[in-house]
Amino acid sequence: MTSSTSAALPLSAHGWNEDRAAEFAFYAEAGLTPALISRVDRGQCDVLLADPESGELRTVRADTRPVGDPDPVKCPCTGDWAAVDLAAQPLPTVSALLGRSTAIVRKTAGGRSDGQVLAANVDTVMIAVSLAADPDLGRIERFLALAWESGAVPLVVLTKADLVDDADFIREDVEKIAPGAAVLTVSAETGEGMDELRAHLPGATALVGQSGAGKSTLTNALAGRHAMAVQETRSVDEKGRHTTTTRELIPLPDGGVVIDTPGLREVGLYGGEGVDLAFADIAAIAERCRFDDCSHRSEPGCAVAAALEDGTLPQRRMDSYLKLQRENEWIASRSDARVAAERARKWKAVTKSMRGSSSPTRHDPRRTR
């Protein structure tokens, strides 16, 4: 057992394993220390690592500038595993990031097509939905597509079950739009459903949802302590204030971690297959279409059109599916355009450099004889 592997053993409860150790071997030879990024601020981060003397976990402030990147998706994020130089001055420094097994990436707000990583290396994406107001099924579908695209397993948690009498009926409605995902009803206040929830959370979990969904209260209940501040929701519309302002990793008492994320007003998708996985029921119906390239509009023998007509497939769900598909197509076109523009810019720079380094050969009339 290498010294770096031994030093990382306390991190095994938070996801460190043999594959991570093998990937880290190169950095261990350089004298770097394995660490888990628990919080990221501008140019700096908090990392969780094993104290070389006591062997206990401690939090260290580190500089992230050496691994900064123009592409936001490649920048350090909460949940990343890192190689840290503890001897660097004036602060320990994140010298490298290990590969990500999963990453929750959403489109940044506004008209840009850039991505933003919400959390990395999580096993479960827990989608918190408050029962204090009528759940927005379309928004839940967006969160599910985001979760499936990450590579992690989605889990829908209907919170504040103590405030309603029809929680089980609502859960049944949500289950219909969440194929392949578990749907639980819980109350962090009374403890209802919390044991079942804990059983669904091995390893690392990212907690996402709107402000007011009860994410911070849920985090505190799972952590068994007051780890996150809690704000009251507005009684008029049950919307909450932004309690969590940054993504923060909270260790859980029985092992594993939960990453609490700020409330998301916009859930912009960043392309990929998440939409198809979130709407697996529609994909299953489409397999019965007469034509493989059926557009589900006017072709004869369209199973999707038939399901819409007989009510097997709700029109609302089909509309939601088509809307998210269009967003994915827009992201893909913008991404392709950005790649093409970057390629053209580099080629232009290379051509300009070549022209500058070459000089024209003048004709010497004395050599024409």
From TrEMBL:
Family statement: Belongs to the TRAFAC class YlqF/YawG GTPase family. RsgA subfamily.
Residues annotated to bind Zn(2+): 289, 294, 296, 302
Organism placement in taxonomy: Bacteria, Bacillati, Actinomycetota, Actinomycetes, Kitasatosporales
Subcellular location: Cytoplasm
Sequence ranges assigned to domain CP-type G in this UniProt record: 112-267
Cofactor: Zn(2+)
Name this protein carries in UniProt: Small ribosomal subunit biogenesis GTPase RsgA
EC annotation from Swiss-Prot or TrEMBL: 3.6.1.-
Segments for region (Disordered): 349-369
UniProt keyword annotations, A-Z: Cytoplasm, GTP-binding, Hydrolase, Metal-binding, Nucleotide-binding, Ribosome biogenesis, RNA-binding, rRNA-binding, Zinc
Alphabetical list of NCBIfam families matching this protein: ribosome small subunit-dependent GTPase A (TIGR00157)
Organism name: Kitasatospora arboriphila
Major localization class: cytoplasm
Subunit structure: Monomer. Associates with 30S ribosomal subunit, binds 16S rRNA.
UniProt binding sites for GTP: 159-162, 209-217
Domain spans labelled EngC GTPase: 120-265
Class of this enzyme: hydrolase
Reported function: One of several proteins that assist in the late maturation steps of the functional core of the 30S ribosomal subunit. Helps release RbfA from mature subunits. May play a role in the assembly of ribosomal proteins into the subunit. Circularly permuted GTPase that catalyzes slow GTP hydrolysis, GTPase activity is stimulated by the 30S ribosomal subunit.
Highest taxon, organism lineage: Bacteria
Cofactor note (record): Binds 1 zinc ion per subunit.
A Pfam family hit: RsgA_GTPase
